[in-house]
Description:
InterPro entries: Rho_GTPase_activation_prot, RhoGAP_dom
Organism: Tritrichomonas foetus
Oligomer: single chain
Domain Rho-GAP: 324-517
GO molecular function: GTPase activator activity
Protein name: RhoGAP domain containing protein
Number of domains: 3
Distance between the termini: 64 Å
Amino acid sequence: xxxxxxxxxxxxxxxxxxxxxxxxxxxxxxxxxxxxxxxxxxxxxxxxxxxxxxxxxxxxxxxxxxxxxxxxxxxxxxxxxxxxxxxxxxxxxxxxxxxxxxxxxxxxxxxxxxxxxxxxxxxxxxxxxxxxxxxxxxxxxxxxxxxxxxxxxxxxxxxxxxxxxxxxxxxxxxxxxxxxxxxxxxxxxxxxxxxxxxxxxxxxxxxxxxxxxxxxxxxxxxxxxxxxxxxxxxxxxxxxxxxxxxxxxxxxxxxxxxxxxxxxxxxxxxxxxxxxxxxxxxxxxxxxxxxxxxxxxxxxxxxxxxxxxxxxxxxxxxxxxxxxxxxxxxxxxxxxxxxxxxxxxxxxxxxxxxxxxxxxxxxxxxxxxxxxxxxxxxxxxxxxxxxxxxxxxxxxxxxxxxxxxxxxxxxxxxxxxxxxxxxxxxxxxxxxxxxxxxxxxxxxxxxxxxxxxxxxxxxxxxxxxxxxxxxxxxxxxxxxxxxxxxxxxxxxxxxxxxxxxxxxxxxxxxxxxxxxxxxxxxxxx
Length: 525
């Protein structure tokens, strides 16, 4: 009897992978002794971790250990399409279309090569697979036409259209019957916000999800449907605002039953963010959701029940620079930039602005800089507020207030500049060359930003006589800002077992790392 294998495809390339039923394994290599068959509708098999050989057209630009200037090919313009070199497909030109369809056009290679985006995008689900996955986990008979007298079930294609329809049961098959009514009530609350823009509904949605986190997969599938449209209407904008709020406020478990909700969401956001010729605000919202969901921590956006509008604005504004990831900062700076020039590094301009301001304030002659606290907390908070509104001109004249801004920026990154998995490998006797090797293994934007910061600290250390700040004291001042240790209870600890090792790691970099390539690079060319 002939043996069969099922063929699947990924989001970003036409390269297939194969699932061998008899051995229950998936592989990128096709065994010719098997007959290829199409998988049944709704079937999804996790792809292998990575191809044995990643083809050149989908490989990451900086997969090698040496730093390369990969961003120089991407324009820093405020054009309606962020990455304007996409090839337009005939199907994508029909603006009156949903995003979820049977279109098999892969995500453009240029999108996946954007150096501050996650490196695993090519392993996500393509459009048809995503749609089949959703259908296989949904109660499709829970949807009915709005205003029915007798229950009239919606056709499948109408279920995935945003707008008015009636939900008469749980959206997902794995949702407990105990919370089915809560799910229906929650979707009604979401619809009220989407239609009427009433901020009180935001508090109600958050309150219900805080009390019943098992409703999260229900509500995100509902919002996938409500944002599945290529025109930026008021209701679509509100649906995206709600999506951003939920992604920013709640931590998702990977699996809900058999549904990998994180993979589903990241696939959906990637497909939208890479679709050409769609409204700019839809594309940016999808990108922000993708970047936030790809981090291990939630963004540092404080929630105050008495000010839901402030929280809503902070979650959705393209200007917020404090409390989010480095990738998000870089994305937003490209949105806000009016320059037609190209950046040659992956260092946030806000970091460069703060360092330039410090030099303007004679930081190299300031005593105990980075050890003294801000002279005015009010002035510091006011400056952060202005920077978060897109005003990058720093008018503060206190060197210690500006140094506290730099430390605050790094301390509030969504994911720390030096990721926790790197910190766990540090020891107090790690040789300098190993420290440099580890620094060169950091993600693209983390590597460049750390190199820029170390370059500045190296220059500062040369003025130890005037500043009283040696390499060792500078390493001690910055170590708590650049790493984050979370205990088993999920709490951030200031004192942790890797503190001394982190300080030594930074000291080795200040003493030995060659940083001219980034620190002394022209900001724009």
